[in-house]
Amino acid sequence: MWLAILGTATNASTNANASSLRDLCPALANKTYFNYGGQGPLPTPSLEAINQSWRTIQELGPFTTDVWPFIEQETSRLRRALAGWCGVGPLRMTLTENVTSGCVLPLWGLPWEAGDELLISDCEHPGVVAACQELARRHQLSLATLPVLALCQTTPQAELESAVLQQLEACQTPRTRLVVLSHLLWNTGAVMPIPAVAHQLKHHPKQPWLLVDAAQSMGSLPVAEAAQVSDIYAFTGHKWCCGPEGLGGVALSERVLEQGQPTLIGWRSLEHEGSAGSSWHRDGRRFEVATSCVPLLSGLRQSLELLTAEGDDDERLKRIRQGSQQLWSGLQSLPGCSTLLPEAPPAGLISFQLEGIETAQAVTALGQAGIWIRRLDSPDCLRACTHICTTPAELEGLIGALAKLS
Fold it and tell me: Could you read off the pLDDT of 171-224 as tens digits, one per residue?
């Protein structure tokens, strides 16, 4: 029934406003896709880079003296590329498998004392929250909540920095040792004032560490200013960067590198891989473990190059916001539709609710028509993401389909 009501999605790749990157993504050729915050499509050149890397390794021999220079080259090139995006030196960059490992591995290696308090925003991803809960259990730490959800739903972005800083001042205590706050909130789409938060924490007697989940910001926002001042700035390459799944990174502060110890240990953590008695690497490599999939490095680097060819961070964000503003404005005209943010989003995440329609039912109905968005649990809402690959025609199609649903 829903499919008959909504009709089928059309291929908008020929739209005049489509990016060249879009035409390189086979996943976008037969569907209308709004789930970049979950996983971005892999461009064909990135897939080809992965395949070529596999071939090169096998031709050189997977464990020969000839292959190590190639592996070092691919590893170093990606490390430098990610460090450049984050505005930090390569020595502060750790390569990881995903956001969670980027957060957890350095977090669990910090010098905790019983009674330390972890202040976690109420908009964090369950994976990071669960890791903090287990850390607290093992080290007799306490947990506290930094309420930002209600602020996002009622405060314009221009006033949000002041409101968040006031909330932070009210919630931190003399025992606060860590603040966990995402850069771009995965549920509301609001951007958090990470540089201002970092500055305020410097005036706290314990100067708490700042852990930033950058899953939604890397590839969608300019991140350098936030990454430079965070202690742990963890991201993945498979969302907005349109890289392969299973690869990410984390930018670490100098003090984390000085104070933190490895938690999950392997030969890559050691300065001299052949000796268990070796000291740890003094840079971000101390939190790297063991064998990684080298071809994924080649794929992600290719995706980053394709994004760079589309424009710099500010130019890409401008295009992303054009899409999110179009969608947000269209949602305002739908009966029974309410957006979580009181104004057009500052980036590409748009969360909203439809009165009288179950969110899971809405996702299923849209999916049957070839239109893909996501349902979130907290709060219960629908989320659509606009990328530089998103076309105005696709946005009009989503708004029209939602109008039929509502």
Answer: 999 999 999 999 999 999 999 999 999 999 999 999 999 999 999 999 999 999
Q: Which residues of 323-344 are buried (b: 16+ CB within 10 A; e: fewer)?
A: bbbbbbebbeebeebebbbeeb
Identify which of 370, 339, 354 has the alpha carbon closest to the alpha carbon of residue 406: 354
67-307, which class in CATH? alpha beta
CATH label, 2-45+312-405, candidates 1.10.760.10, 3.40.720.10, 3.40.30.10, 3.90.1150.10: 3.90.1150.10
Per-domain residue ranges of the chain: 2-45+312-405, 67-307
The answer to whether the CB of 402 falls within 8 A of the CB of 331 is: yes
Question: Residue 196, Cβ neighbours under 10 Å: how many?
Answer: 15
- In this structure, are residues 258 and 118 in contact, taking their beta carbons and an 8 Å threshold? no
Measured CA to CA, the distance from residue 176 to residue 135 in angstroms comes to 15
d(CA 306, CA 271): 34
Element (H, E) at 14: none
